[in-house]
Structure prediction request, 93 residues.
Amino acid sequence: MDTQRPGRTRVTSVSLRAETLEAIRARAGKQGVSSYIEEAVQRQLQREAIDEYIATAEAEHGPVDAAEVAARAERIRAHHAAHRGDAAGVDAA
Prediction:
């Protein structure tokens, strides 16, 4: 049973390994195989767009400093933990 998704849809044929399709069916449940695959593909497209954005930014500005990224991520985690009133969130990584 597929739920309604915004936007136009088209029917297409996709070949998947039998084990993959079985795993999708087991996880999709009432959501339906088509919706599950649509959401998975949308996430992959977003990841690829982010990767392209990062590559473009690094080509223009140089590579990202991993230590700076880690420090900023920790500040973000601490901020969210403080606003949730959840001190345990600060330790989670």
